[in-house]
Design goal:
- This protein has 13 helices and 13 strands.
- The protein is globular, with a radius of gyration of 18 Å.
- The protein has one domain (5-310): Inosine-uridine Nucleoside N-ribohydrolase, Chain A (Alpha-Beta Complex).
- Strand 5 (120-124), helix 5 and strand 6 form a beta-alpha-beta unit.
- By secondary structure, it is α/β, with parallel strands linked by helices.
- Helix 1 packs parallel to helix 2 (44-57) and helix 1 packs parallel to helix 11.
- The strands form 3 sheets. Strands 4-3-2-1-5-6-7-13-10 form a 9-stranded mixed β-sheet, sandwiched between helices.
- The structure holds alpha-D-ribofuranose and calcium ion.
- Alpha-D-ribofuranose (RIB) binds at residues 12, 14, 16-17, 40-41, 80, 125-126, 151, 160, 166-168, 242-243.
- Its EC number is 3.2.2.1.
- InterPro entries: Inosine/uridine_hydrolase_dom, IUNH, Ribo_hydro-like.
- Residues 7-301 form the Inosine/uridine-preferring nucleoside hydrolase domain.
Length: 323
């Protein structure tokens, strides 16, 4: 498709992954060649079910979904079902989607796609297990990769599953570190420093509720549980939505600013999963990352809402005191 950027979205849906998929599927700049699901927030099987629900909601069931790795490279899988609900979408327990294209072999699909598609990028919204496995199997083919944008890590913000570690890289620190050390391209790290500033506040949720329609109802339904978790866990009113920013940044670089550096991921011990960002270049190692530090949260939110609700773009643009 002329002018569109080709992407594979690798994800672990997950409430914020589901919102990120909505944004990607409603963004005309992207041609989603496939969605690969990885273990993370929920077991991979559940992630596939949740992905199909978003595809059904956006009339995109023609996009193939690939079943990926069910366990991290070395660690035991630790899910985030306390945060995202047992079903990964806020305890909604949606009925099983009829139809859709589900195939095995996410790692094979990534490798084959990189070998056949020019200028293909990957937006990774979960642990990097699928990507690490693909890189281990065929490092050469990744020379064809256009860009990798990964929601994960943290530069100066505190962790969300340990004092220093962000969930995606804590679930599979070996996978994350392998990708950062072997991709030979810079990973665009959309970490907690920027994603923590992306909050669905009660006012924004009420706006979504009033915009109405199936997509609005889906968002309200899947975020209820998440909002409760944020209050209990972090004393936040509303909920942080990490993954949609990775999609939005891929589309519009002006949303975030950051810097180039060498980054590696701590694989074990008390700081397991921490991203060590050598911002002062102590180690003089080749830079393997673009670390994002600032975000225009308001500009993101207008973009997010106007793409999800294009028919209400003007209402959203003119709303006062909400965004
Ligand atoms: O730390 C936040 C990340 O971990 C998000 O991608 C969320 O979906 C979970 O996967
Ligand atoms: Ca995720």
């Amino acid at each position: 498709m002329e002018g569109k950027r080709k992407v594979i979205i690798d994800c672990d849906p997950g409430i914020d992954d589901s919102l990120a998929l909505l944004l990607a599927l409603k963004s005309s700049e992207l041609e989603v060649k496939g969605i690969t699901v990885v273990c993370g927030n929920v077991p991979t099987k559940q992630g596939v079910e949740n992905t199909l629900k978003v595809l059904e909601l956006t009339n995109s069931l023609h996009i193939p979904v690939y079943f990926g790795e069910e366990n991290p490279l070395i660690r035991e899988l630790v899910t985030a079902q306390d945060t995202h609900g047992e079903d990964g979408v806020g305890q909604c327990f949606f009925s099983k989607v009829q139809g859709g294209i589900v195939r095995n072999g996410a790692v094979d699909f990534i490798i084959e796609s990189l070998g056949t598609e020019d200028k293909l990028s990957i937006i990774a919204l979960g642990p990097l297990t699928n990507l690490a496995k693909a890189l281990m199997r065929d490092k050469e083919v990744f020379n064809n990769l256009d860009e990798l944008v990964s929601m994960g890590g943290s530069f100066r913000s505190h962790g969300n599953c340990s004092p220093v570690a962000e969930f995606n890289y804590w679930v599979d620190p070996h996978g994350a570190d392998y990708v950062y050390k072997n991709l030979k391209k810079k990973v665009h790290m959309v970490g907690l420093d920027v994603t923590r500033k992306i909050v669905l506040t009660p006012n924004i949720l009420e706006l979504i509720n009033r915009l109405g329609g199936e997509v609005a109802k889906y968002i309200i339904d899947i975020t209820k549980f998440y909002v409760d978790f944020h209050w209990k866990q972090e004393g936040i009113i509303g909920c942080v939505i990490n993954d949609p920013l990775a999609v939005a940044y891929f589309i519009d670089r002006s949303l975030c600013s950051g810097f180039s550096s060498y980054t590696e991921v701590v694989k074990d011990g008390i700081a397991m999963g921490q991203t060590i960002v050598d911002v002062e270049d102590f180690w003089k190692k080749q830079h393997n990352s673009v670390v994002l530090q600032e975000v225009d949260a308001s500009k993101f939110m207008y973009m997010f809402l106007q793409r999800l609700f294009p028919e209400s773009a003007e209402v959203i643009a003119n709303i006062k005191g909400v965004i």
